Each structure stands twice: as C-alpha cells, then as structure tokens.
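Q: Structure tokens for this one, please.
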Amino acid sequence: TITHVHLSPLLFQLHSPHSPSVLCKVGEQEAMVLSKTASQTDVSVHSTFASRYVRDALPRFRMPENSIPKEAAYQIINDELMLDGNPRLNLASFVTTWMEPECDKLIMAAINKNYVDMDEYPVTTELQNRCVNMIAHLFNAPLGESEAAVGVGTVGSSEAIMLAGLAFKRKWQNRRKAEGKPYDKPNIVTGANVQVCWEKFARYFEVELKEVKLRDGYYVMDPKKAVEMVDENTICVAAILGSTLNGEFEDVKLLNDLLAEKNKKKGWDTPIHVDAASGGFIAPFLYPELEWDFRLPLVKSINVSGHKYGLVYAGIGWVIWRSKDDLPEELIFHINYLGADQPTFTLNFSKGSSQVIAQYYQLIRLGYEGYKNVMENCQENAMVLKRGLERTGRFDIVSKDNGVPLVAFSLKDRSRHDEFEVSDFLRRFGWIVPAYTMPPDAQHVTVLRVVIREDFSRTLAERLVMDVQKVLHELDSLPPKQPKVNGHPHHHRNGTIPKKSELETQRSVTDAWKKFVMAKKTTNIVC
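A: Here is the predicted structure, written as tokens:
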C-alpha cells in the first residue's frame, strides 16, 4: 500500500486479481512493491467462508500437500458432519447418547490418559477395579467379604465376549488334554439371534458355531433345543439376556437346569456364558427376582455393555468371571507397578481412560436407586409408544413387555407397503428407525424396532407415534409397490397373475425390498 507519493510524474497500476502487484513509475525509475491477496495467503481471514479454503475441494483419499488454518479445518469437518443423523433421534442404537455435563467434564479432562499406563495413572486403574467389583456384586458373584472380583474393562461387549470365549476354549482344551482326548474340534451353542460378535469369535478363534434356529412367534433360543445340540466338544452354551431383535430375555434358569441334568447324565461339565450386553444393567433393577446370573451354578462368566444401559458413551464393556478358577492363569499377563502385581487380560493394549472414569461416575452418582428410576422410566416410555402404535390398528407388536425397553413391531397388512418403506419415510422427519428381517428360520418376518434410551422422553414417544401416523397416511395415498423377480413381474403366458399363498407373498415382498434397500446402502459405501 502506498500512502504518500511526492514525486511526479507518477504512473500507477491499481491492484486487481489479475495483477497482484503495484507498479509505480517515478521519473525514469521503476519500483515493484510486492503484495499478496487474501486468496494467496495462509493467514485465516475474518470469515472462513470467504477464504479460499472452503472454495477448493480437499483431496478425499490422499493427504493434502499444504497445511490449512485450524479454523478452516474445523469448519470443513463440522460442515460435513452436519449431514450425519442426530444421535438422539437414532432409535436403532442401544448406545448411550447423553450424559450429564459434569461427567462430560470428567471425560474431557481424562481424554489424554492412556489407560494401559498403569504406573502413571494408578487411580484410574483403581477406579476400574472398583467398577469390576460393583458389577460383580450386582450380578450376585459368590464373593467372600474381602474377596476381590475377577473381571476386566473392555472397549465393548465384543471384546468381552472374545475374552470369555477364549477362557472357555482354553479351559476345555486343558481338560481334554488331561483326559487324553482330542481337543481340535471345539464348538459353541447359541441361538440364531446372537449378535455378530459371536460369529466373529467362532471364525477368528476356530470354534464351530452351532445355532438354534428361530421359529414363528419364538424369536429367542429354545433352551431344550440348545441342550440337545450340546456334545462333548461344546465349550459353553451362550444365552442372551436381551435379544437384539426384540429385547426378550432368554430363559437362563431353564437352560441351567436342563444342562445340569445332561451334564450329570453324561459326566460332562459344560458351562454357560450369559451375554448380558443389553440386559445386564436392566434385570437387576427391574426384575431383581429373575435368576439369570451367578445365582445359577453353571453360569461361569457374564459380559455387559457399559455404553448401553450402563449409561456411558460408546467405548466401554465389562466381563466378569464367577471365580479365579474360571479364568485360566496362562491367559493372564502380569504387570508390576508401584510394588503391586496387576493382572491384565485384554485383546488390545492402548485405550482411553475416559469411559472407565465415566462408568465409575454413573455407578456412584446414580446408585441402585438412580439406575432403578432410569430403567423404570425407560420401560414406561416403551409402554407409551407401544400403546400408541397399537391404537393405530396397523401393527402387530413383536417385542415382550418384560425385557429390554424397546418396541419391535410389524405391519398387519403388507399387501401395499412394507416396513422398509415405513423406515425410509420416517427419515424425512429425522427419525432413524431400522427395519430388518429375522434370522433363520423366521427370515420371512420383517420388523421395525425402536430402542428406548434414557434420553427418549414421553414427549418424543408421543411425537414418534404422530409421525408414524403421518407416514402411514402418506403411504396409503401412494400406489402399491410391485415386487419383481429378475426384473419381471410374475405373469402367466395368458397375462393373468398366479395366486400365491399369504406366506409366499410375504416372503417375496420381503426379499424384493431387502435387495432394494441393500442396493441403496451399497451405493453409498465409501471404502
């Protein structure tokens, strides 16, 4: 910028985007005064949206060559994240989406703590040990007055199940070796309704997965059929306390009794693992008399998700063993810090401390009374939603009143439209409500599912019912869908449409729309 020019004659050229310099001619001398425009500088301008950083697209799959200001980086990422769904309206997820501000502060204060550095953060380790003991007592572990519980914090129930499964496998192998019997074909018995982490465990650690198939009207593992599938190579039977599909608790007490009888007859010692990922923080408060935990002698380990109804953000799970004898010593690594022995049994090494601290906060903040109040409120709101859906006269309720507070429901009349369309139309109101088919042998059944979490209020439940009614009204005004096979409708040569049974029609519609939805999802995948 030239502020004063006293010499003459003066020729000057004003700055423009095409001439980023100022040319001055004073007498016979020329001077070039260099300057930079805002679009050429790395200094952030007052408005990020006026800068070049939001005008030019960043490379998506390669690291950019040059740096950008922190304000621009934040704004670019924040703007893209706006296109995500609202976590509070994500009714597909069991995972906690709200915590108190005081706990948020604790989480942020510990965000830079690596939990594995036990000698640097001994108090965090102590808080984890307290959580393990609190949860073990909640699950009625047979502990003495001063006896410490056996368990560990994990990044979720998936890791917890892997650890529990490894303990069962190793203990079974050790017993078979001692008996001089083959130990190369272990299997595990579950229902077809188990979460995918059980399939991962079986595939990753070479264990055969024997699944009890479902049937119409019965969408959990049948204990009688499960025990029939048990043989001498079964490392454990996995029972689900809170099915992902409809929230129902499996009958662990009946499973324990039937399995105990078979064990006695065969001379086996086949144990039970309870996958209480969803129901572990529900049953002790809503159904304290229900026998599903360590009160049953064959239950040797239990996993639970702290980030579900343990009321902590995603990233924390727990696995508890009945006693030290149920966790083979060779699987445990020992770390010595501050003069004490610290046993550790995890699949990963580094992990954050925040979720452990948040779990401890919830346990002491809420206590038994607080958790009971939260779970009762969730159950009441589930009943509000259930009654609202029933009043429409359009749905069959698939979920049970007793179990995880959720509502699973299906359309009574699927001749014109189905659950996948209802799910798709609800997204226009911001709701994320999943539609899915049941596992074998009930795959012809399609349901919608709404998970009731702590932050899903009665007002939101009533609002959801209103929006469901709007969706139904809109769908009624549209022409019915035309299911096709191989791109062509079903027609006879004479042009008539052959009649199908109601079950055949339902299955064909489900298959067609499932393919359609999966095709839509596939086209949006970014690898």
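A few notes: Confidence is low (pLDDT under 50) at residues 1-32, 35-40, 484-496, 521-527. The two ends are 50 Å apart (CA to CA).
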